[in-house]
Give the backbone structure.
Amino acid sequence: MSTDSNTKYVGKAPNRVDGPLKVTGTAKYAAEFDVPDLAYGYVVSSPVAKGRIRKIHADKVLGLPGVLHVFSHENVPGLAWFDRSYKDDVAPGGSPFRPLHDDEIKFNMQPVALVVADTFELARYAASILEVEYEVEKHETDIESKRDEGYEPGRGKTGYMPPQRREDADKGLEQSAHRIRHEYIHGAQHHNPMEMFGATVHYHPDGKLTIYDKTQGVYNCQQYITKIFGLSKDEARVVNLFMGGGFGSGLRPQYELFLSVLAALELKRSVRVTLTRQQMFSFGHRPHTLQTLELGTGPDGALLGLKHYALHETSRFEDYTENVVNWSGMLYKCPNVRLSYGISPLDVYTPLDMRAPGAATGSFALEVAMDEMAYEAGLDPLEFRRRNYAEEDQNKKAPFSSKKLREAYDEGARRFGWDKRPMAPRATREGNLLVGWGVAGGVWDASMQKAAAKATITADGRLTVASAAGENGTGTYTIMAQIAAETLGLPLEAVTVRLGDTTLPEAPLQGGSWTAASVGTAVKNTCEALGEKLLKLAQKMDDSPLKDAKPEDVEFVNGLIRLRKEPQQSVVLRDVLQVSGEREIEVDSSAMPNPVNMQKYSMHSHNVVFAEVKVDEELGTVHVTRVVNVVAAGRILNQKTARSQVLGSVVWGISMALMEETVMDHRYGRYMNHNYAEYHVPTNADVRGIEVYFVEEEDPHVNPLGVKGIGEVGLLGVAAAITNAVYHATGKRVRSLPIYLDKLL
Amino acid sequence: MSIVSTSSAADDQLRPPVPPGSVTLRINGQEHTLRLAPWTSLLDALREYVGLTGTKKGCDHGQCGACTVLVDGKRINSCLTLAVLQEGADITTIEGLGTPEHLHPLQQAFIDHDAFQCGYCTPGQICSAQGLINEGKAHTEDEIRELMSGNICRCGAYVGILNAVKEVAEKELKMASCTCYGSHGHSSNS
Ligand code: FES
Ligand code: FES
């Protein structure tokens, strides 16, 4: 790839290559594939949280002409016996939920039946009148009542790190001149991507399936389905070309996949199953979490002791874990630290990773506590953070591969005008509004996973790169096209990217902010391997000026292969292909993280957020009028799509701070506001000026592209900065989210 | 322990529901005759019967705006109306505004301002923006923000949406107020 200063596409801001498909309605999402002779399934959900199904009176609705079948535990054929067959790639410890497996109800809105009919209208109607009898048992759904029953999970899902301690936190706190201790809470939150979960299963005449599913990982879905139904990979192709938002909700296979495949196999017919918005609240969510933070500093404001405990819900059947407290041991320098963590089972569905899982939760508590501590110690909150800057990762006892958080502080403070901030709360008024400014930030993993890709160039000079990665709004098609075009010196328009299909080389789940690093590196390696092949062919041409060149001696620029040292010595790429007589040339390659570097360095992205709020004290309403979010996440591949991800993160942060919460009615163990009218997320009118800046880091250690991922880090600190700004405006410290207006009255 | 039973159906509910009937809809200038149950929403008619899946379903309850289409130039939530009620009306969906090869100015502006991520709310946002311009509104940023707030974007692309709509609205409203007013093709519905 060309050097940094000299790139044509990488690091620039080209428009999304899939933009024209998305803005014209041409992009196809899972429930939109046109397949012949389609039947429709509609899911019936349990109205009780715990108990047993006594009887499903299916005979009545089966009498309606056009109703094909009512699937339930009463008639589901013998499937895989072991529940490990239902384990997907990111299943936490425990025993996964098996849809329609038996008569037991484990959570409210559990799917209990699938009604299949010739039309959607009929399936929905029949489902609405299906009579189901339940035996109701007593449920527990309130984490507040389980405060003392949290246990530390023995093992967690992939990526879970048990909490740590270093030196003596109690002693550090005892020696402190200033101390605080508070509890911080947020309720459950549901991902609610715009597109609801759905699957279209195409049943081919030979009995093979093409499964269009809403998922963040086609390979994960394929292994899940093939194990459960005893199919070969060749019999179950899983496709997802576009995903209407994921945010983590599609990391694990959801039950529309199981149900639609079951129905298609049994009825030997193509089937579509889509969930309703209400049913989007019937699976994983960010868990309701209670956290206690204790901080102490010396007279100079240097942290001496830190304790952070978090407790959150899990289901009765799986031990869901996330890294909530670990970040508190590494964001600031502190000699004495105790981090601890517990989970407690309730009669709910297993929680599920939701954008910046754990860190969004943990950084909210830590960063509000840091604000409280700064006031206690009489220091400006940003200055307090600077004094406790972590030069190395104390959790891992390793240097950061790169960290420009200090530069991000400088940039953000300058852009926001932080130096004009009066320290005292309630110091600024605008008419009847109180104005407040707050700051907060966060840290997130820069990860990489194994990924593979394939590149094919045809005689007309068109390049296709392919990998089973996904596109859920992050811009995967675009950045892969940029990397490929850059590596082989082709115009962006000459590159086609194919994604989201199990017939393509394997890619990791679309999550953890690792797609750019993992799949991007695989695409780069593959294009470089293709470049070497092309060079060999070029050397076979008569009088080739590249005869003795090694791969490192040449570069691919503007459709040419040329000598780096003598750029006038070149051959036209298209001529190489034509003369070679090959119709197309294809190579496969892959990428893996570098284990030595991973051992040696701590690899993380950071951010800092400055927020302004205006609070109407009489009404308790809060408006976020300005946000500056500065992100240090290595190199930025596409300024436009990266900025959009951070803008979206700020909207998520506003939502987390002021609006978003799934409220449980504990009498029924049922979420009350399970629709888009009562589960509040920001609309256009809620969003004012947001500014996004990147402090780019040159990081040769993190991965060959030098990228750290951008999908999650931007959310960190947003809710805390807003909460801190509300304190600065009003003098009221709110420690439970969302900040509804009654908390300010 | 208690026993509960859901929706014990009344006998008349178990009779076959009203059979499908014939409906003719004019969509993007083309007539489509469909056989569908009379309680089929316009949204489902478009997506499941005509194959125009550009119109999206985000809630099916009039809460999100993903299903916005233009009926006689006015923006409506197509999940909140029945297909049979729209016989004789002029229905415009996202597919009728432009194609990948011939983008509508709003579609181009959405791309230029990166006014979307996943793209799932986008057709609804664009139809809504066209409806807003047809209403002769969208004069100020606050007006656009407020009057585009029936369309949720969970990806949070609001900054881009505002800028894209503003860019096109400024041009269109300028044209509407010049001498060519009335010949520009947009009916004023306010
Ligand atoms: S689908 Fe019609 S408003 Fe949401
Ligand atoms: S672009 Fe994803 S919901 Fe708006």
